[in-house]
Amino acid sequence: MIVVYWWQRVKKLKTISPHWDNVEAPCEFASHCGGCKTQNLLYEAQVRAKEQQVHELIVHVGKFSDKDPEFDGIMKPIVPCDIQFHYRTRKDNHVKSPEMEFSFGTRKWVPEEFLHQECDETNEYALGLHAPGFFDKVLNINKCLLQSNSANKVLAAIQDIWRDPELGLSPYDVHSHHGFLKHLMLRSGRNVETGQPELMVNFVTSSYKPELLKPLVEKVATFPDVVSIMNNVNTSVGNTSVGEEEYTLFGKSTIVESLRGLKFQISANSFFQTNTHQAEILYKLIEDCSCLKGDGSEIVLDLFCGTGTIGLTLAKRAKHVYGFEIVDQAISDARHNANFNGISNATFVQGDLNKIGDNFGEYFPKPDLVITGYPLTRFNLPICCYFSRGVAFLFLVVLR
Ligand SMILES: C[S@@+](CC[C@H](N)C(=O)[O-])C[C@H]1O[C@@H](n2cnc3c(N)ncnc32)[C@H](O)[C@@H]1O
């Protein structure tokens, strides 16, 4: 049988009458930005659609029957978040990622209605989010409703000065591979003693030239919430914000966040749940669903563990937690976080889970519970083979 896949791009011409779930998007950039694509959809409708998507995956791809009386135990109902804006602790990554980043660009995305306006060459430079479907065009923005007010103030301050020709700063050109500034990452945490917000500002550049960043650093360091200014140097031509080298330009190299009563230290490149408020609820749900006896007899395997947050929140009820993760920095944060919280029954191993061998199961005792923060489609054959041997009592897939 030959299967032909066919697709076409469609464009809305006009609205005859709005859908009953249509709402006015609160963000002025919503219709042109590649960040939030559903802001004009009622939140309850967004939640319904997301739940439906997961349901379809579980039934059609996972082949679980929703007629099964135990289906409720296979898929838990979606839990809506009671805050929809200013919740996001990190803005990064690029256009195809579920997360977003601020990118510096040589080509400003100009929505059709503003095309007639003239602009000079430096006005073509942009800092913001990628236009939908374009890796080389950036919509210039000075605020984003998803991030905190203090992060927005920092973004606006950088926007105010970075194009000043006297500073000699140039955005990186993804075609010619010339230019200096690649990405801006803003990451929020909080001082766990005072509860005050803390902000990490990370400039991703194509080379290490701290003297060029000095005016931006001096400006940004005046904001009381900014406790860390980092510089990740990424010399590759790819569009990633992870640097091969990392330098601390001001303050600390990590920020702190608390979750389920534990404190977590987070570096610029380590994954940490981007909505701390909802992560509290998610992690409570994981604890409840984990069915751990709490007598310290069970082994937990935390795959794709990031900074170790899920495993560490379960450690007090487990015999031992084993976490696996590809990012070096995340593993050193996870180890540090275990010590930071006085947890000694957790082991974190750096490695690529797509490259595990048949002997994977020899590195730890047979687990009673496996947690994976990634959907099954990310698994490769060896890891599926490992699981197909029925190694675990309970398997929890955590979808954000
Ligand atoms: C969505 S995050 C989940 C992190 C953690 N479970 C949590 O909830 O905080 C996925 C993690 O998988 C890691 N990862 C991605 N590909 C990987 C691979 N091939 N091997 C190991 N870890 C990987 C990423 O670096 C990231 O930290």
Produce the secondary structure layout.
Elements: H1 43-61, H2 71-74, E1 90-91, E2 102-105, E3 126-130, E4 138-140, H3 149-161, E5 181-190, E6 197-205, H4 210-220, E7 226-233, E8 245-251, E9 254-259, E10 262-267, H5 276-290, E11 299-303, H6 309-314, E12 320-325, H7 328-340, E13 346-350, E14 369-372, H8 381-388, E15 394-397
Parallel strand pairs: 6-7, 11-12, 11-14, 12-13, 14-15
Antiparallel strand pairs: 1-5, 2-3, 2-5, 3-4, 5-6, 7-8, 9-10
S-adenosylmethionine binds at residues 271, 273, 304-306, 309-310, 324-327, 330, 352-354, 373-374.
Structural description of this entry:
With 400 residues, the protein is α/β, with parallel strands linked by helices. Helices cover 22% and strands 21% of the residues. The protein has 8 helices and 15 strands. Strands 1, 2, 3, 4, 5, 6, 7 and 8 form an 8-stranded mixed sheet that branches. It is globular. The relative contact order is 0.08. About 2% of the residues have low confidence. It binds S-adenosylmethionine. The site of S-adenosylmethionine (SAM) has 17 residues, from helix 6 and strand 12.
